[in-house]
Structure formats: C-alpha cells, structure tokens
Write a structure and sequence with these properties.
CATH architecture of the largest domain: 3-Layer(aba) Sandwich
Number of strands: 8
Pfam families: Amdase
CATH topology of the largest domain: Rossmann fold
Shape: globular
Oligomer: single chain
InterPro entries: Iso_Racemase_Enz_sf, MaiA/AMDase
Keywords: Isomerase
Strand content: 15-25%
Number of helices: 10
Structural class: alpha/beta
Largest sheet: 4 strands, parallel
GO molecular function: maleate isomerase activity
Order of helices and strands: EHEHEHHEHEHEHEHEHH
EC number: 5.2.1.1
CATH class of the largest domain: Alpha Beta
Number of domains: 2
Length: 248
Amino acid sequence: MTDSLGYRRKFGVIAPSTNTSVQPEFDSMRPVGVTNHFSRIVIPDNPVRNDDDFNKLMNDIRSTLMDSVDAVMTCSPDYIVMGMSAETFWDGLDGSVELQQRVEARAGVKVAMGSDACRAALKAYGGIKRISVITPYMPVGDQQVRKFFADCGFEVVNLKGLKCPGPMLIAHVSEAELRDAIIEVDDPTVDAIVQVGTNLAMARVAGIAEFWLGKPVIAINTATYWWALRQNGIDDKIQGFGKLLSHY
C-alpha cells in the first residue's frame, strides 16, 4: 500500500524553526501526488550583527540538525530535501559532499541539497560561467558561497550580502528589496544570477526577473525543489517560477 496523498513521493523537508518562507514556497511548487513533511531544526532567533554571531547561528543549526532528520524519518519519507542552505555551502564542494553523505547515512534515503541543486540548475541552463549571487548572510557566509561556486568552476562576478539582522528577519526582506538586489548585481558580463538563503522568498521574483533580464535567475528554493522532483523521476512542468521548473 502507498500513502493516500503522497502516492508518487513523500518528501521529508529539513528547515530551521525560524524559517517562514521555504515551506510555503515548496508547497506552491508541489505536484499532485507529492507531499512535503517538514521537520524543524530548533534554533533560537538570536540577533546576527557580525561574523561571530553568524558563526554562532551555524553552530546552533549543526547542534540539532540530525535530531530533525531523525524526527522526519518517523513518517517514512522516500527522500529528504534540505530546506536550509548555508550549511550546504560550508567548506566548499568538499564540505557539501561530506554533509550530504552524513545526512544520507543518518536518514537511509537520498538527499537534495541547495548547493547541489544550484550547480545542477546552472548546468541545466548550459553555457554559464560567470554568475552573480544574492545572499542574506554576513561576510563569513558569503565567503563560503563564493568558495563553493569557485570549486564548481564558476566565477562569482558580483555578490550582494544583505546582512539580515537575524534568522527570522530574513523573511522580512521585501520583493522590492530583492528586485533592487537583482538589478544591483546584474551586468552584461554576467551569465546568470543565483540567490541563496532559503528564508528569502524569491521564487516568484526570480521568475519575473528572468523574463525581463533575458538570462537565468535562480532562486534556491526553486532549484532545490526542482532537483528533488527530477531526482525522483517526477518531470511535471510547473509554471510561475521561471524556466527551470517549466522547461527543464
């Protein structure tokens, strides 16, 4: 017998307790027969004013990450989707691979991570070498994102770190602010724009921006959910979030 609602796939999704964007964005992309089951990495909503505070936030996430994996596995999902991104970029490509291996070993199922999803999305579009990046992070987090993309062979031309003052407040960045950030990091030499940080609600904005700029604009929540679907053989084309979900 199969799950009555998740008869195609049940996704276990791991997200910080402070994140209010990734769940509604993932749910808005969900095809019929696929269900999303969230488990929260319980962290305090402490202020983030500098690199030291950001490192403390990362340590808070690491300390309870595996507990959230254990919790979601009690509903027997077919696959895990990481609805958090900073840790997936940490220590570059090698760190990303190591994290994926640890989570898969703990869960006993395969895992989609934002870092891998962004790399796969850029490859799917093809011909992309020079990118700009938007993050909600402090500089120490931005450095990790730069390293990951450099390890994957991409040149980060421009990077806009929004330096959000706390994990919950990332979701308070408006669509207008995201639009302005896209405009700021774009230039004619940039092949694509990538946004990281799953609590930035950029899925809809990225799809609009991609149309007006005439180049890929990849929101990490769109990329991660697209990658999870495609890795599970679900090829449904979904409108409203850019070409990644509607064409690839």
